[in-house]
Amino acid sequence: MSKLLGAIGILKQTFDEYAGTDGDKTTLSKKEIAAMLKKELPGAGVCTKNMLDEDGDGVVNFNEYIIFVATLVNALERKILLWAANLYPVICHKYFLA
């Protein structure tokens, strides 16, 4: 399997691992989002949770999840998010809440 196909599989598996624990296997509830972010992206705060739910319906579907992951990859490529330096809250506010 190619690296890209493997990465796509991991993204889907991660979504599926957390989705559905509250009932609907096609979306992530707020509780499921919190659990996923705590384990998969430690230190990502409220800003990240708000970024996930693009349409404001209170849950995150697979499309919103993929858009969020792509946004993070792009931001990391551009070195906007500096996780290791603990600048996330400042950067989050500057770029996503301003």
Automatic annotation (TrEMBL):
<dbReference type="Pfam" id="PF01023">
    <property type="entry name" value="S_100"/>
</dbReference>
<dbReference type="InterPro" id="IPR002048">
    <property type="entry name" value="EF_hand_dom"/>
</dbReference>
<dbReference type="InterPro" id="IPR013787">
    <property type="entry name" value="S100_Ca-bd_sub"/>
</dbReference>
<protein>
    <recommendedName>
        <fullName>EF-hand domain-containing protein</fullName>
    </recommendedName>
</protein>
<dbReference type="InterPro" id="IPR011992">
    <property type="entry name" value="EF-hand-dom_pair"/>
</dbReference>
<feature type="domain" description="EF-hand">
    <location>
        <begin position="50"/>
        <end position="75"/>
    </location>
</feature>
<dbReference type="GO" id="GO:0005509">
    <property type="term" value="F:calcium ion binding"/>
</dbReference>
<keyword id="KW-0479">Metal-binding</keyword>
<dbReference type="InterPro" id="IPR018247">
    <property type="entry name" value="EF_Hand_1_Ca_BS"/>
</dbReference>
<dbReference type="GO" id="GO:0048306">
    <property type="term" value="F:calcium-dependent protein binding"/>
</dbReference>
<keyword id="KW-0106">Calcium</keyword>
<dbReference type="GO" id="GO:0005737">
    <property type="term" value="C:cytoplasm"/>
</dbReference>
